[in-house]
Amino acid sequence: MKKVGIILVSHVPEIANGIPKLLVQVAPDVSLSSAGGTDDNDIGTSMEKILSAIEKNEAEEVLAFYDIGSSKMNLELAIEMTDKQVHLYDTAFIEGAYTAATLIQAGVPLDEIEKQLAPLKIK
User: Fold this and answer.
1) pTM for the predicted model, two decimal places
2) Catalytic residues, which ones?
3) d(CA 75, CA 23)
4) Taking a C-beta distance cutoff of 8 angstroms, is the pair 107, 3 a contact?
């Protein structure tokens, strides 16, 4: 099992499915999972989809990135329902996930990853 992975949550299924295509180019060994859209694949989020993506991620520990508003709320609900250790980041979505993926791939420890994510925090 991989030690640290990434989950991506977006209101738009195509965004949630597209970002991993970018990340796999720089982090082919990092477990990536995503959840996008509602259960009917409309614009929105689904706590069930998010929980499923967390559980399907091959990593023991997951770094979570999201796009806007209710994505965070549903992520927080899903985190409460899983046994996995999930870290939720309020960073620029693509830039935060990209930074984390490259650093995980390079074997950088989590505390250093978090230091490098700090400037990308959305206030």
Assistant:
1) 0.95
2) 11
3) 20
4) no
